[in-house]
Amino acid sequence: QVQLVESGGGLVQAxxxxxxxxxxxxxxxxxxxxxxxxxxPGEEREFVASINWSxxxxxxxxxxxxxxxxxxxxxxNMMYLQMNSLKPExxxxxxxxxxxxxxxxxxxxxxxxxxxxxxxQVTVSS
Length: 126
Hints:
The protein is mostly beta strands. It is 0% helix and 48% strand. The strands form two sheets. Strands 2, 4, 5, 6, 9, 10 and 11 form a seven-stranded mixed β-sheet that branches.
């Protein structure tokens, strides 16, 4: 059973930066595709970014492209989301997820992921 734990959220002013971390444990096989998603109350979960098992291939939502960077360190069982030039519309609960059966680029459909963290809140003030 894979467990994912996010950290690094907080309150930041518009234009600021945050770095989210996702710690994975309990894997019994090679790392697989992972992703970051976000959700605000009353809204559907939204794809933010994904990364393949090696970290060489990434994908971003248009709304964050050029501002956010996804990365991973498999030796440490960690995934990261560096968020720069934050905007109030980036305010959300951010989740990391892993798709155990996928060693390619992570999908944009959150329904295809097997494991989820509990989320970390990011609040951007104007």
